[in-house]
Amino acid sequence: xxxxxxxxxxxxxxxxxxxxxxxxxxxxxxxxxxxxxxxxxxxxxxxxxxxxxxxxxxxxxxxxxxxxxxxxxxxxxxxxxxxxxxxxxxxxxxxxxxxxxxxxxxxxxxxxxxxxxxxxxxxxxxxxxxxxxxxxxxxxxxxxxxxxxxxxxxxxxxxxxxxxxxxxxxxxxxxxxxxxxxxxxxxxxxxxxxxxxxxxxxxxxxxxxxxxxxxxxxxxxxxxxxxxxxxxxxxxxxxxxxxxxxxxxxxxxxxxxxxxxxxxxxxxxxxxxxxxxxxxxxxxxxxxxxxxxxxxxxxxxxxxxxxxxxxxxxxxxxxxxxxxxxxxxxxxxxxxxxxxxxxxxxx
Length: 347
Prior knowledge:
The protein is of the alpha/beta class. The protein contains 13 helices and seven strands.
């Protein structure tokens, strides 16, 4: 998408919150404020906001903060009306002039920031992509909670009374969880032993239930990925979870304008750090979508283990004096390039 100054007459910046949205109409040529309005974050509020914009009958674009969060409802409402919507990130505190902050000021800043950009971001698509995002969040929560419960079971067993430890000694963690989930109390036990058994049984059942829940989410994720882009699953090292993360970050054709932008989105584009007599130096990129970065890292580790071509590349770079960490960073960048080309131009 080109600069907004060449496309529209006004830009409507929107500062989104849970209960209200504040909009400011900005002249695209001068940057001056034309009008402002605060509405409820409801369907009626969205309609009121559109009527407010219709009072200024000019070519317009909407610059919305948090199109995937507080502004998701408004974004869907506008897209159904074929409005031009630009996605903006929440501002950093240091970028606010003199620490000034209010909803109208943030709405004005959003519109002016959209006007200053030479490349504009489009909101992520809804539908199947959003379903994947929801399932990934639910699975991630289930996996993390299950892992916490398993750690607690293991720690409690270590310090448990001997009557309990003797039943669980020598077991691997999965067997320990199944056994602990079936443990029963005995009338002759003291309060410490009885309480420990009760807690162990509760934690073990929680861990098993959450593991089953995560498996169910993964099965549904696999079904959606197969319906959207089965070609991703054919790539080495890419399973349903990694594929879903990649699709959620990429969203739809044309949203990411180049392979370099996709690499930057995944945090695998090296950042130049050359200064003075120090040349050809790069800094590690810690920005971007960290879930996408993690998915790319998992793909690299899998290919280093199972893909002959990747292992040969790693051996060659090792002989050139590169460290394993540097080699992994290079491979992640190459994988980001290949994935972008596959996503934008499927065979």
